[in-house]
Amino acid sequence: MLEFNWKPDKTFPIPLHLQIVGYIKEKISLNEWTIGTKLPSQRTLAELFEVNRSTIIAAMDELAAEGIVQGNSGGGTKIINNTWNLMNQNYNWNGYITSSNHQSNHMMIQQIDTAESDPNMIRMGSCEPAPELIPQDKIQGILKKLSVSSQPLGYEEPKGSPFLRKEICKYLKTIGIEVNPSSVLITSGALQGLQLISLGLLHANSIVYLEKPSYLYSLRIFQSFGMQLSGIPFESTGINIKKLSEKHNRKRGSILFTIPTFHNPTGTVMPVEKRKELIHFCEKEGLPIIEDDVYREIWFENPPPPPLKSFDNNGLVLYVGGISKNLSPGLRIGWVVGSEQVIARLADIKMQSDYGSSSLSQNVATELFASGLYQEHNDNLRKKVKVRRDTALTALNEHFKDIATWNIPTGGYFIWLKLNNPLSMHQLFAKALNRKVLVHPGYLYEFHSNQHIRISYSNATLTEISQGIRILSELVIEQL
Ligand SMILES: Cc1ncc(COP(=O)(O)O)c(C=O)c1O
Asked: How far is the CA of 390 from the centre of ligand 1 (A)?
């Protein structure tokens, strides 16, 4: 990941292109940018450094003349040499990095991950609950209680703590899923659940059908192992089942990934009748489903319909849930629910990867469920998140009325803003970052989209939400 948290200073007596040369050389000399690293395009560099393209060309010419970079006909410029490396004989890892199985994260996601840690940033990209939404005092109370208990912190069973799995089963019953603890696997967040499914159940040619747009497009966990993502058109009620049926080619090893409840990024909720229809279709076609349900508890007026899993009589649905969105992402507690055969397979892969999730986190989660604090906290959380959603909607009505349309979420953390006119999202993102506003360009969730922005109201303060949306509107209007 190349870091660009610096810009040349126009007030300095040193020409801008030489300042850029100096910055790039410094990155190379610190071994932050290694030989073989590809630099962004000239256009992107010009946007990142906020200079004219001619300044970038002059800087690249200078670096090329010193033998530090080399351009190629495909338009990429690579770092090919550095004197510091020659002196130190530092090993060039690039061949290993680029030939490993796992793909790098989206360049933009890497940039976002770095920007997230800027304390002055208005974080409207993140779907992490704000500190005030995390029940710190309750967790502290539990930690205190655990500190005097005699529970050993050894390895847990392959499927995870039996106490936690039992509590999760009780909770699942309240949302319509009746299973035994042997059908539940504790994972380190929902994301690990998805990763285990990709490693343990799919093969290099599997096709993963998914909504278009989808959160899954922003990850590389399936593509890294050769699986293909196949986007299915989306409508106001969720995935278009007719289109899914047209696209589904009955290839062995295919699977459907769906977020039917408070979909990321659109906030959509699939109505109950369609849930039944989808299950019926998948049963008929023998197409298994990964149901990602991590936003379920964050509803505002009415609870969402029961999960797809509750209508599944054949063990076709792998249900992925967790507490990261509604309680604490840092505890890294998630779960996968499926047939015992599948759960045993995933547990085996998990044992091979990490010997189980943190027992301390599992003990905390067990207490949260068993004491009733989980439900109590959710009731509280919903009220607070609704205020955030309303603040975002008020600001949108004030600033985006004439230039965009958007959904009114009934739960979850997202507003999927559709600009009336397409524009360069790269440019908008860079300008917003410069004004300390972090949002997610829609193309992270739907390749080539240049009309959508995902706004999250989970993390920024109320003042920041209003301010961030106002700044964003100014930048959009500037670009129209
Ligand atoms: C739909 C969806 N699934 C899974 C995750 C990952 O959750 P966790 O932090 O529990 O791994 C996210 C987080 O952004 C998400 O939006």
From this structure: 23
**Ligand 1 within 6 A of CB of 79:** no
Could you tell me if the CB of 322 is within 6 A of ligand 1? yes
Identify whether residues 293 and 441 lie together within a single domain.
no
Residues 208 and 253 in one domain: yes
Task: Mark whether 269 and 365 lie in a shared domain.
Answer: yes
For residue 84, the enclosing domain spans 16-100
User: So what's the pLDDT on residue 31?
Assistant: 79
pLDDT, tens digit (0-9, with 9 covering 90-100), for 209-251 = 999 999 999 998 898 888 999 999 999 999 999 999 999 987 7
- Could you tell me the pLDDT band of residue 74, with boundaries at 50, 70 and 90? low
Asked if 346 and 391 sit in the same domain, the reply is no
Separation of alpha carbons 330 and 324, rounded Å = 7
CATH code where residue 442 lies: 3.90.1150.10
Phi/psi at 245 (5° precision): -65, -35
Average pLDDT (276-282) is 98
Domain boundary among 328, 357, 373: 373
Kindly provide the b/e burial profile for residues 120-141, where b requires at least 16 CB atoms within 10 angstroms of the residue's own CB: ebbbbbbbbbbeebbbeebbee
| Paired strand residues for 341 | none
Q: CATH number, domain at 207? A: 3.40.640.10
Residue 321 DSSP SS3: strand
The ligand 1 atom nearest the CA atom of 324 = 10
Question: 49: Cβ below 6 Å to ligand 1?
Answer: no
**Highest mean pLDDT out of 34-43, 386-395, 443-452:** 386-395
241 domain-assigned: yes
pLDDT value for 228: 93
Q: Does residue 4 sit within a domain? A: no
Alpha-carbon distance of 420 to 401, in angstroms, equals: 10
Give the pLDDT score at 460.
Answer: 97
Give pLDDT, residue 87. 47
1 pLDDT exceeds 90? no
228 and 365 share a domain?
yes
Residues 40 and 165 in one domain: no
Of the CA atoms within 13 Å of residue 209, those in its CB half-sphere come to 24
